[in-house]
Records
---
Amino acid sequence: MSTSRAAADAVVTGIGVVAPTGIGVEAHWQAVLAGKSGIGRITRFDPTSYPVRLAGQVPGFEAKEQVPNRLIPQTDHWTHMALAAAEAALADARVDPAGFGEYEMAVVTAGSSGGTEFGQREMERLYLNGPSWVSAYQSIAWFYAATTGQVSIRHGMRGPCGVFCTEQAGGIDAFGQARRLVRLGSRLVVSGGTDAPLCPYGLVAQLSNAKMSAVDDPDRAYLPFDADASGYIPGEGGAMMIVESAGSAAGRGAGPGYGRIAGYAAGFDPPPWSARPPALRRTIEGALRDAGLTPKAWTWSSPTRPASPGSTRRRRRR
C-alpha cells in the first residue's frame, strides 16, 4: 500500500454508546461479555393495549444531564441520544473540534424513524387545540436529517454532512460514506446513528409490517436465527464514532485507534423470479476490491488463550 493511500485510510479513534445494554462503551461492553439483554417492558408510555409490550429501552438516560437545556425543547429524544453519543465519542477520541478547520469536519448519521415522539406530541396539540399550539420546531425536529444538523451545528462542523435512511443497514452505510469522505479530504467525520421509536405513533407504524414479536417473555421475545423466532422487537439508542484519516490521527498523536475501515460495498438481492445470483457474494467481492484485497490475502488461525481478561477486552474492542 502506498504511503499516500495509507495516510488517507479511515480509522476509528473514538466511540460513544447510548444503548439498552448501557450508556458508555465500558457499560455496553461488559453487558456484551456477560450476555446481558437490554430487552424489557416499555416504560416510556403504557403499552398495555398494544400487542407488543417489550422493547430495548435505554435505562437511566436523562436529556437534561446530557444535552444543553436550550436544545431539549427543540429536538426529539432520538437526537438527544445522538448528541450525547457524539459528545462521548469526541471525548474518547480526545478531539477538540476547535483544533480543526470547520470545513475539515463532516457529519454522517443514519436513522429510520426520525423524531416520532416529538412529532406525535405536536400532532396531538394540533388535533386537540389547533395550529397555534404547535411548536415551531416541529418543522425540523421530526426530520430524519435533524440529528446530523444538530451535531454539526453544536460542534461547528461545516464540511460535507448527510444522512442515510436505510433502516437496519443505515449504520454500515454511514460508515461507508464516512470512509469515502475521508478519502475525499475530510480530516474527521462524526458517524453513526440512533433511533427512538418508543411512542404509540412509532410502535403502530411498525406494527403495520406484521413482523414484530408479540411474545411477552423478555428471554423469548427476540430469538434471531432460532427455530422459535417470532419476529423482532423495537429498540432505541445507538452509537456514534469518530472516523479520521490515518494521517490526521497520527499527526495529533491519536495512535492507531480502534480499527480501520478498509473497504465498503452495498447491494440488493434481486427479485426471486430473476435469474441473477443473490447480492451477498457480489457485495463481499465489491468490498474486497474496494479495500484492495483478495480472499487469498487473509488466513485464519485459532487465537491462543489470552494472558488476562483485560487483554481480551482490548483486542476485541479494536
---
Amino acid sequence: MIQGEPSGSAVILRLLRICLHVGFAVLLVVAMARVLMSGPAPSGWLPLVPAALLAAVYLVGTVLEKRHSTDTKRFDPRRYAKWWLGAVSVLWLVLIWASADFVWLAFPLFFLQLHVLPRRVALPVIAASTVLVVVALWFHNRDAAGPALELPMVLGPVFGAAFAVITGLAYRALYLEAENQRLAAEELRRTRGELARSQHDAGTLTERARLAREIHDTLAQGFSSIVLMGRSAEKALDDGDTATARARLRTVQETASANLAEARNFVRGLQSPELEHISLAGSLRRLCEKTEAEAAARGAVLRCRFDLEGTPVELPNPYSTTLLRAAQASLANVWVHAKARTAVVTLSFMDTEVALDIYDDGVGFRPEAAGAGVSSNESPRADGSGYGLRSLRERVTALSGTLDIESAPGEGTVVAIRLPLVESPATTVPAGEEPQ
C-alpha cells in the first residue's frame, strides 16, 4: 500500500504508480493462468486460493490508499501499511512454495518494500526476498539427478532486485520532492488566506473608524443640536414666546433634514450633501451662522465669523469634506466646552497648501494633556462623546496633512490644519467672485 502522493504530484509519479499496480496484476494473472493450465486435477489448483486472497488484500490496500489521497478526511490506512505489506509478503511466500510461477511477483514487491519500509530495513528485506526467489526457482526446477542451480536462476533475481532498488530510490526522491512542493503550496495557500483575512479585518476596522468619524462629525452633532433646540423651544413655549419657539422648531426641522441627507449619503458613500450644492467657503460661512444660532438657543452669546484668504481653488472631495468636518467638530467644541464669546474660522488658499484655522477666546486647555490630539475638554467618555479631535487628527493624517493645536488655560484655542495641494488645481474661482 503506497502512501498517497499529493494531488499536484508530477505526472511521472502517477505513471509509476499505475505501472506498479498494473504490473503486479498482470504477473498475478499470468501465474494463475499457468497454474490452471499445468494441473488437470482440482488439487493442482490449490494455489489459486491464496492467489485470490493476495489479489483481494492488495486491491483493498490500494483502494483505501487512493481514497485517502483524494480526500484526507477519509480513513487513513498509512498506519496499517506495514501490516498490509506483511500480509502480502506471507501470501507471496505461500504461493512461491506452491508454484514457481509466482516468484516473479517479487519485482513489484521490491518496490512496495522499499516504499513502505525504512531504507535501512527495506534493503535487507529485499536481499532476503531475492534469496527466497533463487531458492524457490532451484526448488521447483530440481530433478531426480540432484539439484540443478543454473546461473540465470541467480543472475535474473539479483539484477531484478538491483533494478528495483535503483528505480525505487529514484521514485522516492521524486515523491519527496513532490511532497515538499505540496507542503510549500499548502503553506502558500494558508499564508494567502491569512493575509486575505488580515486585510479584510484591517479594512473592516478602517471602515468602522471612518463611519465613527462621520457619525460623530455629522449625525451626533446634529442630534445634539436638535436636543438643545427642542429644549429651547419648550422653554420658549413655557414663557409664552411662540415666535422664538417657532424659530427653534424650524431649526430643528432643518437640522433633522440635514441629518437625513447625511445618513443617505453615508449609504451611497458620497461627500457631504452641503458640498453638493454650495462651495466649501459657503458651507463654512453657513456653519458659522448655525453655530451662533445654536449657542443663542442655549442662552450663550457667541459671535462666529468666517474669513476667506487667497484665491479659492477647486479642491478634491476628500479635502473639502475633511475641512468641513474639521470646522464642524472644532466649532462644536467651542460652543459646548470652551465658553467662548468669539470664534473665527479662516480658510486660506496658498500655492502649495490649503489651510483652515479655527480660533476661539474660550477657557482653553493644556494640549500636552490631550494625548493623541484629544483635548482634555473631550476625553473619551462612556456615552461615546469626546471623540472630536481624535477623529479630526485621523482625517487630516489620512490626507498627509498636519494638525496643530495651540491653547493654554484662559487664553483660548487655535486649531490649525494644513493640507498639501499635490497637483495643480484644474479650475479656480474668477478673481473678485466670492463663493456663496
---
Amino acid sequence: MEKEYLIKKWLDNSLTPEELEAFKALEDYEALTKLSNYTKGFKAPEYNEDEALKTVLHQIETKKQSKTNWLQPVLKIASILVLCFGAYYYTTTLDTTFTTDFSEKISVELPDHSKVDLNALSSITFNKSDWKNNRNVSLKGEAFFDVEKGSSFNVNTPNGIVTVLGTEFNVKQRDNFFEVTCYEGLVQVTYKNNKSKIKPGESFLVLNDLVINNQTVYSQPQWLTNTSAFKSLPLKEVIAELERQYNVKVETKNINTDLLFTGRFTHNNLDTALKSITQPLQLTYTKTNQTIILERE
C-alpha cells in the first residue's frame, strides 16, 4: 500500500486491520507512534495538515537519498514533529455536527452533559476538544436546550446569538423567522448588536425584521410532544412547519398566506393536521402524492 495513503488513514484513525499491519511495517512506524503521544499537551498554531503531510513525505524521501549519516536522525525527528503537530491540529479542530431530516427529531448530549433536542430539518455543530474552554454551539433550524450550569454557553445562529449560564430555552431560526423562548433561568439574546434579556415564560421574536415580545403559557416547547403550536403567526410559517414535519409540498390558491393563524397541529396524522389548519380558516385541501393544495371553500 502507498505510504501516503496509510499515513492519511492513520491521521483519521480509520485504518482497517489489514491496513494497520501494513502501517506497522513502515520503517518509521515505531518512532511515529511513540512520539505522537507527546503532542497531547501541545498548543498548535494555525496549521495546514495537507502541507504538513507533504513536508513529512518529502523529508522521509530526502532522508533515504542522503548519504550523510548525521542528517538521518535530524530528519526523522523533524518529520515526526511535523506529523504530530498535524495530528494534534486535525483532532482539536474537528467539529461534530448533528442534522435531522424531514419528520425527524433527535436528542443529543453535549460534552458537559447539557442536552439538546433537535427539531426537523435542523443542525447543530460544536467542537468536543475545545468544549471546556468554549461552550459554543452553531444552530440552523430549531432546538430545545437544557444547559448544565457552568461557564457562558452560546448558541450562534444566522439571525442572532443566545447566551446563558445554565437554563432551559428554545431557539427557532428559519429564514426571516427568529424566536427564542425561555422556560427556566435567564436568557440573553443578541440581535443586530442589541441585547435583550428574557425571563421564564417570555419569548423574543423577530419576524421579517420586526421585533415582537410574547408570552408563553407552556412549560416546554410543544414540538417535543409532537405538536406544533402557533400564536398570531402568518399562515406561511404554519405551512412551512407542516412541510418540515410531513415531508410534503404545500401549494396555495387564492389565499393570503400573511393571514394570521392561532392554533396547533399534530405531527402524527397528516389529515388531522390539515383539518386543524384549514377548518378555522375556512379552507379546503386536496392531496396528490406528496403535494397538498390549499384553497378557499
